[in-house]
Structures
1.
Amino acid sequence: TRSERQQNNTIYSLRTSFDVTDDLQLNVNYSRSRESGVQGYFASRESLYAGGASANEGALKGTANRETNNDRNNLFEVTGTYDLDLGGNAVELLAGYSWQEYDFQGFGGGGRGVASNAFGFDNLGGITDLAEGTSQLYSYRNGYRVIGFFGRARMSIGSAYNVTASIRRDGTSKNGPENKWDVFPALSASADLVDALDMTGPNQLKLRVGYGITGSLPNENYGYLQLFGNGPSAPFGGSFVSTIQPNTNPNPLLRFEKKGEFNAGLDFAFMDYKLTGTLDFYTRTTRDLLFNANVA
């Protein structure tokens, strides 16, 4: 047997920053990655299992196939940050927009009945399956898009306290038409108790608490639609023809899987940081769980 793949990866990005004022900065980023490749598989006429040599005398010997793909990922993002100095306190504001698109496409073919081992997988036109109309030929193209608007506010009160609040509004083409968009908020705070209470014993006592909601994309790019695939061959007009059959039911309510997580923790250090540790408590609740279910 012989298996081979040639792959080319191209990645480039452009980024620029502009200081609108001393406190306001604008950032623009664009990146693109592309993966293209071609691969082949060949099993000789003498290969017992992959090539079919162990089958009966009339069976086709040798297997060959080729496949190519061309995948792209484009990302565009704009963010703006504003820093405000309030003497002993500080505020940092961030707002942004994100756009990302994926595109996957490719085709391939192959079958049994290799006339000669000399060509390997480089002469698919000579395989017997192709002449008899039973070769494996296929092509595909699919993709999806994710768009997000987001903002974050962070406030430092002295050197002891920090509070951060954020919110995202994300949408994706993977979701059903009635649930394209959703909102994901988060809030967290921390306090350095050694600094806040002017403690002399411990080197560090930092209390943390936070709650946030995150989302997961559906696995399938078109899971909200009714999808069709190749079915069994059926007799028609004196010969067998390919058929198409439904593979999935439509789900117009398909949406993000959402995880809400609460976390509280304490970081501590004693004896000149010779004794350190962390205590954490968290709980997570998942809603709109994504999974495939068989229906009668």
2.
Amino acid sequence: GSMPGNRSPTPLRAASFSYRRLSDPSYPRSAAACYEAHTPGGIHRAAFEPSDPRHPLSRVKDKELPMTKKRTRIDLDQMKQERQAAVWITAYDYWTASFAEQAGMDMILVGDSLGMCIYGYSGTVPVTMEQCIWHCEAVRRGAPNTFVIGDMPFLSYQVSVPEAVRNAGRFHKEAAVDAIKLEGGHRVAPQIRAIADGGMLVMGHIGLTPQSTGQLGGFKAQGRTADAAKALIDDALAVEAAGAFALLVEAVPPEVCRIIRDTLTIPVYSIGAGREADGQLMICSDVLGIFQAFT
């Protein structure tokens, strides 16, 4: 999965929102929700009755949620051709997924970064298939009309090709994901090919691959020398040749990401790899300022 902390060093904050308790005497006691928005123009306050359409949670009921058309592989390919950047985010629970869908995210990744962001592990290695599927189920319920990607955890695909296909199938059968993601280049090409041959969409992931941090010497940027950059490009080509529909590139120099994007025909997405990609992935815990370990 993708590492929390791989984000722009100066994220923009257009506005932040908070809700105040009814016990606050400055608001009518009959109001069901007190709303405060901090914007560049100042602080704006209001109180809304439950029936008011401006109530912060008035649109949460399923029948009132805006219907969005789920992206498909064809849509994502077309976005690359038209240089329209895809915007996506991680989510690990129903509510975050629901808000992501309402915000119009193109995709949601249920990353094994949940091990660090939700369970407090020091890395992603301890995460299990069961945990990933549980969280994928919740995200699918929260975002029924968004393209959802399940992240295959450590040892769910490395042991054997048949086991990789079986576990990828579990994500589809038990959590109704639209695709799965796995880490690696040449070494996982057989798994990518077999899963794709099974009729499932596979996203590759190269660069900083958190499940392999022991081999990489920690959470360090990759592809910083000419030889390392060439190896990454070769891995990217192997992932595409194996049948992946897209590729995530993490923590590599922007120049290397740009070369990979321009070389491959499939969409190439960045997390901490610069702007020169077909779209950007952000970790929700970073966006919300929840994850503090790397800051």
